[in-house]
Specification:
The complex is a heterodimer. Chain A is mostly helical. Chain A has 19 helices and 6 strands. The model of chain A has no long low-confidence stretch (mean pLDDT 89). In chain B, helix 7 links the parallel strand 7 and strand 8. Chain B has 2 domains: 226 residues, 3-Layer(aba) Sandwich (Rossmann fold); 66 residues. Chain B is globular, with a radius of gyration of 22 Å. Chain B has 11 helices and 14 strands. Chain B is α/β, with parallel strands linked by helices. The chains are: A mainly alpha, B alpha/beta. Chains A and B meet through helix 1, helix 11 and helix 12 of A and strand 6 and helix 4 of B.
C-alpha cells in the first residue's frame, strides 16, 4: 500500500497539468500577499503641494503617525481622540472641502481608527444612523465599552427583529469578547480580503488538480488494467483519495505559509495583536485579534478546501471524462459566490452552507460572514450563527463525499 | 488449478432499441479452463471481451458464476486478482508515464515489493525487447511496442491465469512469432486465455479452443478435435479468373482463400463438397477453415 501511495503521488506530480497548477498556486500566493500593500496610499502636503505616496513607503508613514496611540484602547484615548476631532471640526467646519491636509494628517488621521469605532457605537437605536461628531460627548467616549454592548443589542434588534433566539446568541457571544480592545497600526482590510481570495483561488487550483484523478482512467482506458490488479479496487480508491488529500494539504500549507509570511512581513507582525473590533466593527461577535482571525479564516478555508477536494473526487469517480468532471467542478466551486451575488436571500444562504465551497469566495465567504454580517440561519428548531455552519457542514461533508467516492469507484462497470 | 464458468450470462441495457431494451452480450456460457493455452475465437462483437472482463472480475455476470478452484471469484476478491494478469483489447495508460515508470506503477498495484518488481521489470523488458526504450514515454512508442508494454504489464506478477484480449493486434509478423514463443514458454502449469479473431495466433499454440458466436460458446476442444468436424469439407482447386464471380455467388460453397497464380489462374480454397468445383483436391482442414465454417 505504501509503495502504491508513493507511486500514485509521483504519478500525479509528474502530470504536466499538475505541475502547472502547483506552480500557479505558489505564484498566486506570492502575488496575493503582495498586492494589498500596493493599495496603501498616503497624501501629504509639501511646499503647498499635495503629494501622494504608495505602497510600503505610504504604509511606513501611516504607521509612524498612528503608532503613538498603539496598544490598549482605553476610554481616555477615545476621549482624547474625540476631543481632537471636535476641536478641528469647530475650526474648519467639516473634513471635506478645504480641510487642511497637514492638519488632517497630524490631528485626525492618527486617531481615526479609534474614533471611527466610537462613532459607530453611538448609532441611534431606532434608525441605526450615527450622530455627528460634535454631538458625541466626552462621557460617551469614557463609556465606550458600555456603549459597545448597548450598540450590539440595538443592532441585533434591527437586524434580527423576528429572531429573539439570534439576539440572545449574539448577546451571549459578545459577553465573551475580551475588553479592552487593542490596536496596532498598519493592518489593512484589503489584506484580509486577499486572504479570502487566495483561499478561493487555491481551492480552485486544488480541485483542478483533483478533477481528473479517477475519470482520466475511464477516459484513457487504463481503468480495466488497474481494476484487474490485486490492489486495484478499494485500496486504489483509498490511495487516490489519500494522494489527493496529501497534495492538497501540502499545497495549502506551502501557499498559506508563503501568504502569511509575506503579508504579515509587509504589514508588520505586531498588527496581528489588533482586536478585530477595531479593524472591522465594534460589534463583531468574536473576541479575537487579527492574528487569531487570520488563523480561524485559514482553518475554515482548510476545511472548505478539503470538502471541495472530497466532493470533486466523488464527481471524478462518477464522470466518464475529464472535461465533464472539470466543468462540473468549476461550476460547483463558484456556485455559492454566484448565487449569493445574483439571488441573495434565504435560498442562497442555505445553498452556500450546503455546498462544500460555500465558505470560500467573495461576499458569501466565511470571512465576510465573520466580520461584516450578523447572519443567523435556522436549522430545525435551532438558530445557528452562519460562520459556525460554514465550518461544521463542510467538515461533515468530507467523510460523506469520500465514502461516496469509494463506493462510486468500486461499483463502476461491475 | 481450474477456472469454471457456470451458466455465465451478461445482459446490458440497450437504450437505442426500445422494442428490445436488453442486449444479450454473453448467454449461458459454460467453460472449464485447465492449464494450457486456450484460444477464444470469435468475430468482433461476439462477446469475447465481455466474457474476458467477467473472467477477470472487472464486470459482474448478470447470472451464473465463475469459480477459481471451486470458490466463487467474487468471494476471493483481491486474492483472485493477485493470480491474474490481464491485457485488455484497448490498452490504456497514463500519458505521462515512461515504460519503466508505467511498469513500476503497475507492479505497485499488483502488490509487488520494490526489489522484486525491479528485477522482474528488467527480465520482462528483455523478453519483450523493450530495454532500449524503457525511459521513453509510452505515447512516443509505435503501436507494436505499446502492445508489448501491455503484454509485459500482464506478465509482471507471474500470473497463474493470464487473460489476453486480442494481444497480437498491432504486432508485426516477427513480433507475433516472438510473442507465441514467449507464451508457449510461459503457459506451463498456468492457464492462458487468448481471445482473438486472428486464428493463426492460437492455431499453433492453443491446447484448447472455444469458439464463440453471438454471445454463446458453439464448440470447445483441441484444434484436432475441432477441425475434425469439417474433415472432408475443405478443398482446393485452380480456376480461371473469369469464373470467380460465378463461384462466389454459389450458395453451396464458401471461399476461404484466394491466390493469384503466375499462369493467370486463381488457386481457390473452399468449404463445400468435392464435386462442387471441377478438379478439387481434398485439403487438411485448419482452425481458420472451421472458424469460417461456423461463422
Amino acid at each position: 500500500m505504501i509503495r502504491l501511495y508513493k507511486e500514485e503521488l509521483k504519478r500525479i506530480v509528474r502530470t504536466k497539468s499538475t505541475l502547472l497548477f502547483l506552480a500557479a498556486s505558489v505564484a498566486m500566493s506570492v502575488f496575493m500577499a503582495y498586492i494589498p500593500v500596493t493599495y496603501v496610499r498616503f497624501t501629504y502636503e509639501e511646499n503647498g503641494q499635495e503629494m501622494t505616496i504608495k505602497g510600503r513607503d505610504a504604509l511606513a508613514l501611516r504607521k509612524e503617525l498612528q503608532n503613538p496611540h498603539a496598544g490598549e484602547v482605553t476610554p481616555e484615548k477615545m476621549a482624547e481622540g474625540l476631543k481632537s476631532y471636535q476641536k478641528n471640526l469647530e475650526i474648519y467646519g467639516d473634513f471635506y472641502g478645504d480641510f487642511p491636509r497637514d492638519v488632517h494628517n497630524a490631528e485626525i488621521f492618527p486617531w481615526s481608527p479609534l474614533v471611527s469605532r466610537l462613532h459607530e457605537v453611538m448609532a441611534d437605536s431606532e434608525t441605526g444612523l450615527a450622530p455627528d461628531y460634535p454631538e458625541i460627548t466626552e462621557t460617551d467616549a469614557l463609556n465606550f465599552y458600555e456603549r459597545c454592548r448597548t450598540h450590539l443589542t440595538d443592532l441585533m434588534k434591527l437586524e434580527q427583529k423576528n429572531n429573539p433566539q439570534a439576539q440572545q446568541i449574539a448577546a451571549n457571544m459578545y459577553d465573551k469578547v475580551s475588553m479592552p480592545f487593542y490596536y496596532y497600526p498598519g493592518y489593512d482590510r484589503n489584506m484580509f480580503e486577499y486572504e479570502g481570495l487566495c483561499l478561493f483561488l487555491l481551492m480552485l487550483l486544488c480541485v483542478m488538480i483533483t478533477a481528473p484523478l479517477f475519470c482520466c482512467e475511464y477516459q484513457t482506458g487504463a481503468d480495466d488494467i488497474l481494476r484487474s490488479t490485486k490492489l486495484g479496487r478499494r485500496k486504489l480508491a483509498f490511495v487516490k483519495i489519500l494522494s489527493a488529500l496529501t497534495l492538497s494539504i501540502l499545497l495549502f500549507a506551502l501557499c498559506m505559509t508563503i501568504f502569511m509570511v509575506i503579508s504579515n512581513g509587509l504589514f508588520g507582525w505586531e498588527c496581528r495583536q489588533t482586536s478585530m473590533q477595531i479593524l472591522f466593527s465594534a460589534s463583531t461577535l468574536l473576541g479575537l485579534n487579527i492574528g487569531q482571525l487570520q488563523n480561524l479564516v485559514m482553518v475554515a478555508g482548510f476545511i472548505a478546501l478539503l470538502s471541495c477536494v472530497s466532493f470533486v473526487l466523488f464527481i471524478s469517480s462518477a464522470c466518464k471524462n475529464t472535461t465533464i468532471a472539470t466543468g462540473l467542478t468549476i461550476a460547483f466551486s463558484i456556485a455559492p459566490s454566484a448565487f449569493y451575488m445574483m439571488a441573495g436571500g434565504n435560498f442562497a444562504a442555505y445553498l452556500r452552507v450546503l455546498l462544500p465551497s460555500g465558505a470560500l469566495g467573495g461576499s458569501n465567504s466565511f470571512s465576510y460572514a465573520l466580520t461584516y454580517y450578523f447572519e443567523f440561519l435556522r436549522v430545525g428548531p435551532f438558530t445557528v450563527w452562519t460562520p459556525w455552519l460554514l465550518m461544521i457542514v463542510p467538515a461533515l461533508e468530507i467523510p460523506l463525499f469520500l465514502w461516496l467516492t469509494v463506493r462510486s469507484y468500486c461499483r463502476r462497470s461491475l | 488449478m481450474e477456472i469454471i464458468l457456470e451458466h455465465v450470462t451478461k445482459h446490458f441495457k440497450d437504450k437505442s432499441n426500445k422494442s428490445n431494451p436488453v442486449k444479450k452480450a454473453v448467454e449461458d456460457v459454460n467453460l472449464h479452463l485447465t492449464p494450457g493455452v486456450w484460444g477464444l475465437l470469435g468475430a468482433n462483437g461476439s462477446g469475447k471481451t465481455t466474457l474476458m472482463r467477467m473472467v477477470c472480475g472487472i464486470m459482474k455476470p448478470t447470472s451464473g458464476r465463475i469459480c477459481y478452484d471451486g470458490i466463487n471469484i467474487e468471494h476471493l476478491d483481491d486474492a483472485y486478482r493477485d493470480i491474474i494478469g490481464y491485457l485488455p483489447q484497448e490498452f490504456g495508460f497514463y500519458p505521462e508515464f515512461t515504460v519503466q515508470q508505467y511498469l513500476e506503477y503497475i507492479s505497485a498495484l499488483k502488490g509487488m515489493p520494490d526489489r522484486v518488481a525491479k528485477e522482474r521489470i528488467d527480465e520482462l523488458l528483455a523478453k519483450v525487447s523493450l530495454e532500449e526504450v524503457r525511459r521513453k514515454k509510452i505515447t512516443k512508442l509505435s503501436g507494436g511496442m505499446k502492445r508489448r508494454v501491455g503484454i509485459a504489464q500482464a506478465l509482471l506478477n507471474n500470473p497463474e491465469f493470464l487473460v489476453l484480449d486480442e494481444p497480437t493486434s498491432g504486432l508485426d509478423p516477427a513480433e507475433r512469432v516472438r510473442f507465441r514463443n514467449l507464451l508457449s514458454e510461459f503457459a506451463k502449469d498456468r492457464i492462458v486465455l487468448i481471445s482473438t479473431h486472428i486464428v493463426s495466433d492460437v492455431e499453433y499454440i492453443a491446447t484448447q479452443n472455444a469458439i464463440m458466436k453471438s454471445g454463446e460458446i458453439l464448440h470447445t476442444g483441441t484444434t484436432q478435435e475441432l477441425v475434425s468436424q469439417i474433415h472432408g469439407k475443405v478443398f482446393q482447386t485452380m480456376i480461371p479468373q473469369q469464373e470467380l464471380g460465378m463461384w462466389e455467388s454459389d450458395p453451396n460453397i464458401q471461399i476461404v482463400n484466394l491466390r493469384n497464380e503466375e499462369d493467370g489462374r486463381l488457386c481457390l480454397r473452399y468449404l463445400g463438397r468435392q464435386t462442387d468445383i471441377p478438379n478439387a483436391v481434398p485439403q487438411n482442414p485448419t482452425l481458420e477453415d472451421l472458424y469460417l465454417y461456423l461463422k
